[in-house]
Amino acid sequence: MIAPTLSEWLQIIEVIVLLATLIPMAIQVFLSRKAIEEAEKARKTSFMPRIKATLHFPAPTYAQLKMQNVGKGPAFDIEARIETAPKKDQRVWKQLVMTPDEHTIFFLPEGNFEKLAQEFDFVLINGRYKDIFGEEYEINEKIDLKEQLKELPKLRMVWQEEPLRKIGRELEEIKKGLGKIEERIRTATAKKE
Prior knowledge:
- The chain has a four-stranded antiparallel β-sheet with strand order 4-3-6-7.
- The protein has a domain at 51-153: Immunoglobulins (Immunoglobulin-like, Sandwich).
- The mean pLDDT is 85.
- By secondary structure, it is an alpha+beta fold.
- The protein is 49% helix and 34% strand.
């Protein structure tokens, strides 16, 4: 076996030093790319729209379909099919832009919710929309009308209770104001006598 010469040892040391500097740099590049990908993903998430379907009750027994963007970014090129089952009442919804918290209200085939739930089982919404980056998302919403009908008494109580509380508070304020007026009238009449 022949022993390496000094120049061969120097070359081996150069390769080791080169590898010792290149490996950490490669690791740093890899970690930097991963951090950039995560930052990009977080940025996209902060602009992601999400369209959700719910029932809207403008009155205790009257229902409408409410489509709302509950996400953080605008939804573009919305196209969806809204239908009721088992009887097919179908319509197409197209909207160019829906900003965060914006909503669109749709009339259902029957306004009275109890009649609607007797005639239909579900409201189905299927479609697509895009985010600000052009990424496409699906809308697959299903509202079970029979299940919602079971919850209707609770919804009515919430709907009725809050306005009554507000009216009660306003009547108390009016009562206080009338009491102050009555006191001023008594004071003014007492001074005249």
